[in-house]
Amino acid sequence: MDATAGEHRGIWVLAAHEAGRLTGAGARLLGVARTLADSSGASVTALLLGADAPAESDAWSGLPNAAIAQGADTALLLRDTHLAAPDGAIWAAALAAVAQARRPAVILLADSPLARDLAPRLARRLGSGLVSAVEPAGLDLDAGSGTLQAARREWSGRLLTTYAQPDARPQIATVRLAAAASPYADDWRYGSTETADLSAVAWPAAQVQVVAAAAGAAPAPAANDRDSPAVAVPRALRAARCLVVGGRGAGSADGFARVQQLAAALGGEWAATQGAVEAGWAPPEREIGLYGTSVRPDLYIGCGVSGSPQHVVGMQQARTIVAINTDPTAPIFRWAHYAVVADCPTLLAQLLERWAGTAG
After folding, report:
1. Residue 329, phi-psi category: left (phi > 0), alpha (psi -120 to 50), beta (remainder)
2. How remote is the C-alpha of 191 from its chain's centroid?
3. Can you tell me the distance from the alpha carbon of 131 to that of 45, in angstroms, rounded to the nearest whole number?
4. What are the tens digits of pLDDT across the range 150-167?
């Protein structure tokens, strides 16, 4: 159903949790929502979905307070046996029923395989629109109209498009959180805890059934959590304070090996551009950019990186950017705080040699 803007208020966040604790994605998405709320005067509600366990049990007792500490004003519990397993069809039915009753203005989900199934179903049930894979910096909520503006990169990062749904409520967006900052947990924040009434939900047939976990298998990924071990991107890559990235300008597999050596010498992590991955010098899970992951290290060192838009979108939030390239007109230099015009393989060899001499 479509609704007018005046009837809907507040920002809802589908907060991922696992084993009684918020996941990293759940906490970061609450931080994104809190920033929007503070700039627009809106309230934040954390949606906590799961099986019908007593609120006093270990699985639920700490979740509401954790969500409030991360920025929520209200923790809304959606508990039912139907919600035991992440299932896009079933979760959409529950969320749509509660949203129709409570009328939020905005619903945010962490971009993930589950969200890519759930969000379109939810938008269809609510007669609303959906913007997918938005970076946190691309979100803005107008305090007057309540319209969410969501900017996202398209056409391999060459085009920045802003989407808005001025007449549709709720407004739904999935958010890429790899580059989002982890918010400070304020244990002194005050909020309320409520339980949603799911008695009127017409539960659809389950699309997902958890039969059993294989012996020695890794735990099932938390719903909506891109930090899950099931995702191939190394956790250390996203958490790295120092990141050395190699591009085609590394010259060869041997040249790219020097990128890895420099990262090790600096106590950081290494990554690659799409070109370096296509050259076979690095695995896809180490790719930074539109088709890889987004990072925000304290120090980014680009070695032979040209600075294509699809790469820049994944690293532009780094605190300090150092770029090494033979071409003084390389696009990466427009983003760099420090630009080094030099042959990358030669310079890296010299740096590593001097480093080894100093260490010896």
Report:
1. alpha
2. 25
3. 20
4. 888 776 566 778 888 888
153 strand-pairing partners? 160
pLDDT at residue 45 is higher than 80: yes
Domain that holds residue 355: 235-359
Rounded CA-CA distance 323/273 in Å is 13
Q: What is the DSSP letter of 147?
A: P
Q: What region does 357 belong to: left with phi over 0, alpha with psi -120 to 50, or beta? A: alpha
Per-residue b or e along 219-256, where b marks 16 or more CB atoms closer than 10 Å to that residue's CB: eebbbbbbbbeebebeeebbebebbbbbbbbbbeeebb
pTM: 0.67
Q: Are residues 144 and 251 in the same domain?
A: no
Q: Which two tokens mark 197?
A: 């009434």
Residue 232's identity, in one-letter code, is A
Mark which of 164, 195, 226 sits at the end of a domain: 195
Same domain for 246 and 140, yes or no, is no
CATH of the domain at 178: 3.40.50.620
**Residue 315's domain is classified under what CATH number?**
3.40.50.1220
- What is the per-residue pLDDT across 239-266, written as a single tens digit (0 to 9) for each? 899 999 999 999 999 999 999 999 999 9
Counting the structural domains of the chain, the total is 2
The answer to whether residue 204 is domain-embedded is no
Amino acid at 3: A
Using the 8-state DSSP alphabet, how is residue 289 labeled?
Answer: S
Q: In 99-134, which positions are buried (b, 16+ CB within 10 angstroms) versus exposed (e)?
A: beebebbbbbbbbbbbbebbbbbbbebbebbbbbbb
The amino acid at residue 91 is W
Q: Is residue 223 part of a domain?
A: no
Same domain membership, residue 266 and residue 175: no
Q: Are 334 and 308 in contact (CB under 8 A)?
A: no
Read out DSSP for 207-220? S-----PPTTPPPP
184 and 111, same structural domain?
yes
Q: Identify whether residues 151 and 287 lie together within a single domain.
A: no
Question: Hey, how many other C-beta atoms are within 10 angstroms of the C-beta on 293?
Answer: 23
Q: Please state, in angstroms and rounded to a whole number, the distance separating the CA atoms of residues 327 and 190.
A: 54
Pairing between β-strand 159-164 and β-strand 148-154 as defined by DSSP bridges: antiparallel
Question: Is residue 270 within 8 Å of residue 286, measured between CB atoms?
Answer: yes
